[in-house]
Amino acid sequence: MLKYRDFKETDRDYVTRSFLFSFLGNSSEAKKINKDSYMVGQNKVINHLIDTSKVLIACDDQDEDLILGFMIYDNFPLADVLHYCYLRKDFRQNGIVHLMIKQIQKSDSLAISHLTDEIRPARLKKFWNKVIFDPFLTRK
Predict the structure, then answer these.
(1) pLDDT tens digits, residue range 48-68?
(2) Residues near 124 by Cβ (< 8 Å), separated by ≥ 6?
(3) What is the distance between the alpha carbons of residues 100 and 80, in angstroms, rounded to a whole number?
């Protein structure tokens, strides 16, 4: 049912749109931004992250083009960085995010660059000893 793969250029539109609208709908901070400004600015940020970071795609094992979710992340010597995690609503609460975390974890510290109202850093401490929020990690 579930398979992981690397990002393909044909995934860009899905990843960009999902990130863009999910973050807008789930971040009280993003909701405060002028919508036109958000759409232009955040689109640039997302595409920059796709171009400069790693993207793990969770997909159907029979159909790789059926994306269930994704993580945009980096692994640095001192910490893993999670830029964004998205999972389709109909696949949530099934442990898929935990399985994705196990795929990307290389360090005992995590930095999150995009915080939503749904992210609970304390819950992430079962995977990483130290969890911080740092929005400036999007600028490489």
Answers:
(1) 999 999 999 999 999 999 999
(2) 101, 110, 112, 131
(3) 13
pLDDT at res. 120: 74
Q: Residue 72 to residues 34, 35, 75: CA-CA distances in angstroms?
A: 25, 23, 11
Q: Closest Cα partner for 88 from 12, 21, 6, 5?
A: 21
End-to-end CA distance of the chain: 35
Burial status of residue 127 (CB atoms within 10 A of its CB: 0-12, 13-18, 19 or more): middle
Please report how many Cα atoms fall inside a 13 Å half-sphere around the Cα of residue 89, on the Cβ side.
3
CB 137 within 8 A of CB 83: yes
Q: Is 81 helix (H, G, I), strand (E, B) or coil?
A: strand
Please state whether the predicted TM-score (pTM) of the whole model is above 0.90: yes
Asked if 4 and 57 count as a contact pair (C-beta separation under 8 A), the reply is yes
Is 113 in contact with 134 (CB distance < 8 Å)?
yes
- Residue 60's pLDDT is 93
